[in-house]
Each structure stands twice: as structure tokens, then as C-alpha cells.
Model the fold of this input.
Amino acid sequence: MKTIRLNGNKTAAASGPDRSFIASGLLLPAAHKASDLHLGATRISWGMTNRFSRTFSVFLAVVLGGAGGLRAAPLKVASLSTVLSDVARQVGGDKVQVDEIVRPGVDPHEFQPSPGDVERVAGADVVLVSGKGLEGYLAKLEEGGDAKKFVNVGDRVGTSLKLEDDGKTVDDPHWWHSVANVRRAVGVVRDAMIAADAADRDAFTANAAAYTGKLDALDKTIRLKVAGLPRDKRKLVTSHDAFQYFARDYGFKIYPIEGVSTAEEPSTRKVAELLSTIKKEKVKAVFFENTQNPKVISQITRETGAKVGGELYADGLGAADSDAATYEAMMLHNVNTLVNGLK
Ligand SMILES: [Zn+2]
Done:
């Protein structure tokens, strides 16, 4: 049985042009916002005040709730980022249903939405966008939809670091490797959920505060672990330039193999430069990423004697059965792998 939320906000949202609800055997035909809603033979004006909206909600609850089992439907949140899916679950709790459009292990640089994905996004109340240019396909999803429900989180978390991509300077999209940025993202997600579902404001606010506390503890833990690694050993060689925000916050120097996009193959010249840098800087270890082909990495280890430090999660969370299934776990995995590999 489909359910309908019984507060003013969501009742109005549920009256969008493409929805109808069957509840307790009563069909509520799809009605346009601010138009009339037909309920059996009764015609009720939909352009109502908040007070009337509440009264009407009670009326609906009485009419529809008779058969029992009617509950508030969760807010539908579609997420284009595995990190934001986790943030949405933390902040939304049982008040939201998170639909992961971009799933763990998928390369977000290469992702293209299927027609099914476009449909799922169209059916969502809120769409969380990673931002800073990561979703090149975004216009396709926004087309003909409600632009207001797209929340570009990355563009609101703070200063963008820059990258050279194909001769152009662009925003570095990997903002989530800074815990401070994710802390700000929690506030953006909380506010977006409240705007879409004011009735659950208290829950969203409390969940966001609790999760922010966890992020503060995570940030402290990472700083403590990094402090155990001498400064001249904080050198990070990975297969694409994803860790600038991490390096800025936690004091690492980065030697990237590729530019911003994983679609690039590193040039022979670039690899040769990197090989000599690794030897000169006495870099002890190089690192894989979860969505990368390790071919170049094995060439580097062969020719420089640096060891493989392990796998880093550069572009999002790991699968549910991995040790990086949540944002906190992913960051701890990365910092542990780095510190153990480089010390
Ligand atoms: Zn990336």
C-alpha cells in the first residue's frame, strides 16, 4: 500500500502532477499544486492556509486512517554520491529513504545515468549532488524537473582547491577527503531535509548534531594517527589526484600520476618524471585506489623499489561488506593504510 504523509508540506508535495495514492481503498486522484483536490464527491479547495492545511490533514487522517497501518511515508532522497548517501542516512535516520543512484565501487568520473536512474531521480523529493563539477551529466537529470529539489552540496562546503585538467584549471571535486568539509555538508543536508519536510525538523536537527560530534572525533583521530608519522614521510603517490583536500588538512605532499579524471592515461613522460621524483624523495610506498587499474603502479614499484602501500578509497565508499562502508570507516581505512605504508 502506498502511503501519504499527513503534514501540510508533504501533502502539498504529494499532490504533484504525476502521483496518485491509494490508501484504505480510497483513490486520491493526482492533483496539481494549488488546484482542487477531489475526494469522492467532496470538492475541497487546495489553496489553503497552514491552519486549514493542518485541519485538512487531520481530516485525511480520520478518513484514510480508519483501516489502520497508515504511516508517514519517508522523505525520498536520491543521492549521486556514496559519501552523501551515508550523510543522508545519518541525518535522515528513519525519516528518509535513501536511493543510491551512484553506488559504492562505481567510478563517479565515468558514471552516466541510465533511463531508470533518470526516473528514480524524477521520483525523489530531494536529490543530493556531490558538486564541484563532478556530475557532468547533471543537466540531463535536471531537465524538465523541479530545479529546487537538486541540492548541490559540494558547492556549499567551502573553498574549492584547483586542478589542471586537459590544460584547463577546474575545481577539484574530491572535497569529502576533508572531514571539515563533510561537517559543513551535514549542515547543508540537514537544511535541505528540513526544507522538504519541516515536520521532522527536530529529528533532522538532533541527528545532524550527533553525527557532527562523531565527525569531530574522527578528525581528532586522524590528526593523532598522522602525528605519529614524521613530516618528511608524509608523501602520497596515488593513481589520480584525489587527495588534495586530505593533504591540505593533514599536512601531506602529493605526487599524482594522473590529472583529475580517471579517464586519462598518464603519458610516458609524466610516468618518467614521477619515477625520478619517487627515487629523489625516497618515497617508501605508493597506493592503489578502489576504482583504479593498478598497471602503472606496478611499473613504479618495479622501477623505484617503493612498495605497494595498499588500497585507498579515492572516489567514494566501499561496498557494504568492505571496511569502508561508511564515511567514518572509509577515512579510517585511508589514514591507517597511509600511516602503516609510509612509516
Ligand atoms: Zn576522483
